[in-house]
Write a structure and sequence with these properties.
It contains 8 helices and 12 strands. With 319 residues, it is of the alpha+beta class. It has 2 domains: 153 residues, no CATH class; 110 residues, TolA/TonB C-terminal domain (2-Layer Sandwich). Strands 1, 2, 10, 11 and 12 form a 5-stranded mixed β-sheet that branches. α4 runs antiparallel to α5 and α7 packs antiparallel against α8. The longest helix has 17 residues.
Length: 319
């Protein structure tokens, strides 16, 4: 699953009040300054710079892209990031534990044959369980496809057997489904035979979770002004506080924000107090996103909020 880095946070009129939080300045040119060259403070973004950001961000949305390279190319900034080597998707070797588990499935079937002996029937057919295997190789749950073999005791026995299996550890970020199919038959005199059906086990990797950049931007534009209240309260406790605070979070399967973390940039360690941080985290956790496509969680990384009191006026209470 991939992170979404929103390079452009469109300015909202609500921020142009006593407690302001603006978009970050344009990205600097890559490279090292010449020896002896004094550091240059970034200039505030001009209207043309903002228009350029907006244009590039819209192009990124139209192209369905969400990576740093696209924005840097659009803005004319040299891209010095090394391309990550393409890695094969994580796989799981499920054949060995499945084959080793066949005798246990046969024992479950033998019990069914014993229970139905006096009924004058010989139940035969397939049983098709699907095991949800966690990255550590343990089985989280077992479900069944609708098959001819629907005896409750048989299915319960098969479920217990499979849940005791241990699969190899995988590099998947979440559970991996392993589809199984066992062919159950008999041989004289009423002896149980169990075997894996051809082509099984089948490993089904989880779908890659995605959240469209346009959706992330829409959520930000709608909710970002609400963080002004946290900053106004901070100014009452410590007038003149300034700094930048970045935020990272994950969007779960229901579109809720979780695992919110903050990072302070360009400010003293004690610039913002714990009350402000707690307020900001609580506010970000209230934001609701569309449900991710293909699963969750999806990481979202925002560039810093820039907090600075508006000169010449006292902060007013946030609405």
């Amino acid at each position: 699953m991939r992170s979404f880095l929103a390079f452009l946070l469109v300015a909202n009129p609500a921020f142009a009040q006593e407690a302001t939080s603006d978009i970050p300045p344009p990205l600097p040119e890559m490279g090292s300054p010449a020896p002896g060259t004094p550091p240059v403070e970034p200039k505030p973004p001009t209207s043309k710079a903002l228009e350029r950001y907006q244009d590039c961000f819209q192009k990124m949305i139209d192209a369905g892209a969400s990576d740093n390279a696209f924005m840097k190319k659009c803005l004319g900034i040299a891209n010095t990031e090394k391309k990550a080597a393409k890695q094969a998707p994580p796989t799981l070797d499920a054949a060995k534990p499945a084959k080793a588990g066949v005798p246990g499935i046969r024992d479950c079937y033998q019990k069914l044959l014993a229970d139905t002996k006096d009924l004058g029937v010989t139940p035969e057919g397939h049983v098709e369980p699907t095991a949800s295997v966690k990255p550590d190789g343990t089985v989280a749950s077992v479900s069944f496809q609708t098959t001819a073999m629907t005896d409750a005791k048989l299915l319960a026995c098969v479920r217990d057997k499979i849940k005791s299996w241990t699969f190899p550890k995988s590099k998947a970020e979440g559970p991996v489904d392993v589809a199984l199919s066992f062919r159950l038959s008999t041989k004289p005199p009423r002896t149980a035979v169990a075997a894996l059906a051809g082509g099984y086990p089948k490993v089904v990797l989880p779908a890659k979770a995605e959240l469209p950049p346009a959706d992330v931007l829409a959520v930000f534009k709608k909710n970002a002004p609400k963080v002004r209240g946290c900053y106004n309260d901070q100014l009452k406790r410590k007038p003149g506080t300034t700094g930048k605070v970045g935020a990272s979070l994950e969007v779960d399967a229901d579109g809720k924000a979780q695992n919110v973390t903050l990072r302070e940039l360009g400010a003293a360690d004690d610039a913002f107090d714990d009350t402000f941080r707690d307020c900001l985290v609580k506010e970000l956790k209230r934001w609701r996103y569309p449900k991710p496509q293909g699963g969750a969680p999806v990481p979202v990384v925002y560039p810093p909020f820039i907090f600075a009191p508006k000169t010449g006026k006292e902060p007013q209470k946030a609405p």
